[in-house]
Write a structure and sequence with these properties.
nine-stranded mixed sheet, globular
């Protein structure tokens, strides 16, 4: 499907589907999509005690802090997918520790207070933050992609990823990574097919990455967020 620029939104059209920059009013839709794709691509509504928790960890903070790297997928039924990117994972996690997690720690229980294992790693992220990982040094950016079933199988995931590559390259990122659960083989196949390389794996899943070319004039100006970085893979 050929894409065409949409000047009114700063996005691009793929037939009747629009890929456009995120807006503040999209936050409830991001939370909903994250919940309905949060169980390894399937609906997690019956798995979690806290419907907003998945979005609070994996969706809304990106739209709040990294809106320039956030794209939503909109059709006649509304927003049904997104790509949420982050330029510098270490800087992003410092921001979450400083500004995002504290109010959520008042709202959500400690992980040991919840018997259901589905919510445990999410609550651990809220209360303990995301530990640093070596991949942040070589591939400091990361991303999350989620599409509702009605938008899957139409080449939109690849279009989203390519759009982010252009944005991150222009911002000076040398590479992007993401984590994928081993129990989500469809996502594993998608990222391999889209041009990501396996960087590491364990019993729980994979870390994929892609190096990005240096932008024009990179010797003279490197994005300040990507300098002095250190640090592990955020789940994708």
């Amino acid at each position: 499907m050929a894409a065409s620029a949409d000047a009114a939104t700063g996005g691009e059209r793929h037939g009747e589907v629009l890929l456009r920059p995120v807006r503040p009013e999209d936050l409830p839709a991001l939370e909903e999509v994250c919940l309905r794709t949060g169980d390894r691509g399937a609906d997690a509504s019956a798995r979690t005690r806290f419907p907003a928790l998945l979005g609070d960890v994996y969706a809304t903070p990106y739209a709040v802090h990294e809106a320039r790297f956030a794209t939503v997928v909109e059709d006649g039924h509304g927003v049904g997918g997104y790509l949420l990117g982050c330029l510098d994972t270490a800087a992003f996690e410092r921001w979450r520790e400083r500004s995002w997690w504290p109010p959520l720690r008042e709202r959500y229980p400690l992980p040991e207070q919840v018997a259901d294992g589905f919510d445990t790693p999410l609550l651990r992220a809220v209360h303990s933050g995301v530990p640093e990982q070596p991949v942040w040094r070589t591939h400091p950016s990361h991303l999350h992609v989620d599409l509702l079933p009605r938008l899957q199988g139409r080449g939109l995931g690849g279009a989203l990823v390519r759009r982010l590559w252009v944005q991150l390259t222009a911002a000076g990122s040398p590479g992007v990574h993401l984590g994928v659960a081993a129990a989500n083989p469809g996502a594993v196949r998608f990222y391999r097919r889209t041009g990501f390389t396996e960087l590491s794996r364990d019993e729980g899943g994979y870390v994929f990455g892609r190096s990005l070319p240096a932008p024009p004039g990179a010797d003279a100006a490197v994005a300040p967020e990507v300098t002095g970085r250190s640090g592990p893979a955020a789940a994708g």
